[in-house]
Design brief:
The complex is a heterodimer of chains A (349) and B (344). Chain A is an alpha+beta fold. Chain A has ten helices and 19 strands. Chain A has helices at 2-12, 19-25, 43-63, 88-91, 220-225, 227-231, 238-248, 273-276, 296-304, 334-337, and strands spanning 64-68, 72-77, 83-87, 97-101, 107-116, 121-126, 148-153, 165-174, 178-181, 193-196, 201-208, 215-219, 235-236, 254-259, 262-268, 284-288, 291-292, 311-317, 324-330. In chain A, the strands form three sheets. Chain A has a six-stranded antiparallel beta barrel. Helices cover 23% and strands 33% of the residues of chain B. Chain B has a seven-stranded antiparallel beta sheet. In chain B, strands 8-9-16-19-18-17 form a six-stranded antiparallel beta sheet. In chain B, strands 10, 11, 12, 13, 14 and 15 form a six-stranded antiparallel beta sheet that branches. The longest helix of chain B is centred in the N-terminal third of the chain and has 22 residues, at 2-23. Classes of the chains: A alpha+beta (349), B alpha+beta (344). Chains A and B meet through α3, β8 and β14 of A and α1, β9 and α8 of B.
């Protein structure tokens, strides 16, 4: 448990006071140049990817398990005492007795903890006491569009002769709850881990659509959001996931649209925190507290992580003055600017 | 000063949509990684370099009535090539496309049931003979591999994804669902339903027919039937006798591949799109993840040095393609070649 929690604790103190800590924990990618390139350019670039995967594969596989009880799925151990993260449709009903199968075929008794039907995240605990091989979870903001990643799992169920199956690919899209990749998945992979090049879990296999490039994984962020409730064996609904955020969310006061580099400001509400910070239409917000904005949803989510009166640091591209800027903004109270409606509406940044 | 700012704001409002459009492709706008940069994107596969060229030069396309049904690997300057035998079963008018795109003649010499390899021949000097990797010790989970896809038009890449091993064979099937409540003390078992592509239905059997004999065995239970059918491979012929009303009728049924009948009923196969009809019964395979079309079997599987580590033999499902390792292909090709030469 220790490692998991320390990891998650780092995640939960994403605040302005801890920028230093965030910067160090957000490291990064392996040092080889291919991981900074748009595409690998030569056989030696491909070999660098291969060697990087191989250097962490053994440990990654040792922690990956097969979960039997609601059909056959996969999962990954994230603490020495046997806490397993998986897909919500693999862990199933909280409290249900199921089995976890290690790579060597050892079958262990386990229990389903909580799950989120909305995000398809789930937790399982191995009930037999022991010391199990485990891997670390990456901080939520470390995986980006274009990153090289690899998937491990038990497609089609446990097969000792074949062993765990590897797939290598790239992140095609990342939103708050979902990563899309070209690591091809099939039934039995569900719940299995998606790893970054340092062998840290960045996602959990969830579902596929028709093409080879439509494979979807639950993000670490979705796990983090519902963590306490899942650990307490609750079924988490969409309302549960966002209730806390809606109550707490601070107010910036911009109108905005999606942009390849972040979010593009199209309007500023008068006297809002954004106006006080001298943001202007045309400016692009690229980072919030050092975290890269990859979608409108992520922007909304990150702003809502902070309440009125809390400070956030925005990194912006100034359309008019030119150049980059870092601004500290104190978020306001939404109700002061936009009167609350009777029907609850989704949070606005 | 204030006026100036107002004007700027107005200009900004007009310009914004244009700024977005001019700086981003449609995929950028959707926040997606552009196709060309994905694992099998145009730009990514270029990194395979010379090895990709080798794959193309050593691959032919096998056509039936002008339609691509398989690829073939060029073995030598005499024009011998190998391909996947079970894809040739319905051949009518065979021809081939060379790697330069010319339509050429091709003839089937012979095939090996065990490995599902067929030896064929084209004009001497066609294509570049493949260079085999003799030592596969460095071929492990994670090793990059590349092969030509459908009609040998594009290179596709991926990694070795699981352990080298054997894949247990599957017998042929009648494609029938039998009465689950059969009485083991009475003769015969009723056919309840036919699966898709059922060879029994094709021969004229009907729902409600009672199977009373398979080969020389009298049938009393479903188990009797399956035990008897299990002895036969796909495409082999089985004699059956059925009872329809008072009438006993003999049938000869050519068994189908299990995947041709039951894949439609299998969730993972439905997720996989088209797969090979023969995907089991191999003594030694390499497993990789390249999402090749089932009509792209028979081509060489290349490593990054441009050496062929095997020949693709089956597209199994969405995440699995099998290749016979180089040593096995060479052994079978040599055997088929010497048998052919012995005949002349």
């Amino acid at each position: 448990m220790k490692v998991t929690f320390s990891c998650l604790l780092i995640l939960s103190c994403v605040g302005t006071e801890n920028l230093k800590a965030i910067e160090t924990s957000f490291a990064k990618r392996p040092s080889h140049a291919v991981f900074e390139k748009k595409v690998p350019e030569s056989p030696s670039d491909l070999i660098a990817i291969e060697e990087q995967v191989r250097s962490v594969l053994k440990k990654s596989k040792a922690a990956t398990v097969c979960i039997q009880g609601n059909g056959s799925g996969s999962g990954v151990i994230i603490s020495e005492d046997g806490l397993v993260i998986t897909a919500g449709h693999v862990s199933g009903e909280p409290g249900k007795k199921i089995h976890v199968v290690l790579q060597d075929g050892t079958k262990l008794k386990a229990k389903a903890l909580g799950r989120s039907a909305a995000a398809d995240s789930g937790l399982v605990r191995i009930t037999k006491k022991g010391k199990y091989p485990f891997v670390d979870i990456a901080p939520p903001a470390t995986v980006h569009k274009g990153d090289w990643i690899f998937a491990v799992g038990h497609p089609g169920g446990f097969d000792k002769e074949r062993g765990l199956v590897l797939r290598v690919g790239r992140v095609i899209h990342r939103s708050t709850d979902t990563i899309q990749s070209d690591c091809k998945l099939i039934g039995g992979d569900s719940g299995g881990p998606l790893f970054d090049m340092l062998g840290r879990v960045v996602g959990i296999h969830s579902r596929v659509s028709k093409t080879n490039e439509q494979n979807f994984h639950v993000t670490v962020r979705a796990f983090k959001r519902d963590w306490d409730r899942m650990l307490a064996s609750k079924i988490v609904t969409i309302d549960d996931s966002f209730a806390k955020i809606e109550r707490k969310g601070g107010f910036l006061g911009i109108k905005r649209i999606s942009h390849p580099k972040g979010v593009l400001i199209t309007g500023i509400i008068g006297n809002s925190p954004a106006a006080s910070a001298k943001l202007r239409p045309g400016d692009i917000i690229t980072h919030i507290n050092e975290e890269k904005i990859e979608s409108l949803n992520l922007f909304r989510y990150l702003i809502n992580q902070h309440g009125p009166g809390e400070k956030v640091i925005l990194k912006t591209i100034k359309r008019w003055e030119g150049g980059d800027d870092k601004i500290e903004v104190t978020l306001g109270n939404r109700d002061k600017f936009i009167p609350p409606k009777k029907v609850p509406v989704p949070p606005e940044g | 000063m204030r006026m100036k700012r107002l004007i700027k704001m107005k200009v900004a409002a007009l310009l914004l949509p244009l700024l977005v459009v001019s700086e981003a492709s449609a995929q950028d706008f959707l926040d997606e990684l552009p196709s060309s940069r994905r694992l099998n994107g145009k730009s990514t596969v270029l990194a395979f370099g010379e090895a990709g060229t080798s794959a193309k030069d050593s691959t032919l396309t096998v056509l039936n009535n002008g339609k691509a049904i398989a690829l073939a690997t060029v073995l030598d300057p005499e024009g011998y090539v190998v391909t996947k035998a079970s894809e040739l079963e319905r051949m009518e008018d065979l021809s081939a496309l060379s790697s330069t795109g010319d339509e050429i003649n091709i003839t089937l010499i012979s095939s090996d049931q065990k490995t599902d390899l067929a030896l064929m021949k084209v004009d001497p000097g066609t294509g570049t003979p493949v260079r085999w990797a003799d030592d596969l010790n460095n071929v492990q989970q994670g090793t990059w591999v590349g092969s030509m896809n459908h009609e040998a038009e594009t290179l596709m890449i991926g990694v070795i994804s699981a352990k080298r091993r054997s894949i247990e064979g599957r017998s042929g099937v009648l494609g029938v669902l039998l009465d689950p409540n059969d009485d083991p003390n009475e003769m015969g078992v009723a056919i309840m339903q036919f699966g898709p592509n059922s060879p029994a239905q094709k021969e004229g059997m009907r729902e409600g027919d009672l199977v009373i004999r398979v080969e020389d065995k009298e049938i009393k239970s479903r188990k009797d039937i399956s035990e008897e059918i299990k002895k036969f491979a796909p495409t082999e012929e089985v004699r059956l006798k059925i009872l329809r009303g008072e009438e006993g009728i003999p049938f000869k049924v050519t068994l189908n591949y299990m995947s041709n009948v039951f894949d439609m009923l299998d969730r993972n196969q439905r997720m996989s799109g088209l797969t090979s009809k023969r995907k089991a019964g191999f003594s030694d395979v390499l497993q990789h993840e390249i999402p090749l079309s089932p009509m792209a079997m028979g081509g060489p599987l290349m490593d990054l040095k441009g050496l062929a580590i095997g020949v693709n033999i089956a597209r199994s499902d969405r995440v699995t393609t099998f290749a016979l390792p180089s040593s096995l292909v060479k052994e079978i090709a040599d055997k088929l070649k010497s048998q052919n030469l012995g005949n002349h």
